[in-house]
Amino acid sequence: MSPMNRRKGILIRLAWSMTLGASIWGIANVALADDDMDTRATDLHETVVKVPMIEHGLFGEHERDIVATTYMPDGDGPFPLIVLSHGSPPDPRDRPKVGRYRELPQIRTFVQLGFAVIVPIRRGFGATGGTYEEGFGSCRNPDYLQAGKDAAQDVLAAVAYAGTLPQVDRDHVVLVGQSAGGFASLAAASYAPKGLVAVVNFSGGRGGDPAKHPGIPCGPQQMADAIRHFSSTIKVPVLWHYVENDLYFAPQIVATWFAAFQAAGGQGEMIVEPPFGRNGHGMFAVTDSIPIWLPHVEQFLSPLVSMKQ
Question: Which residues pair with 57 in a beta bridge?
Answer without folding.
Answer: 60
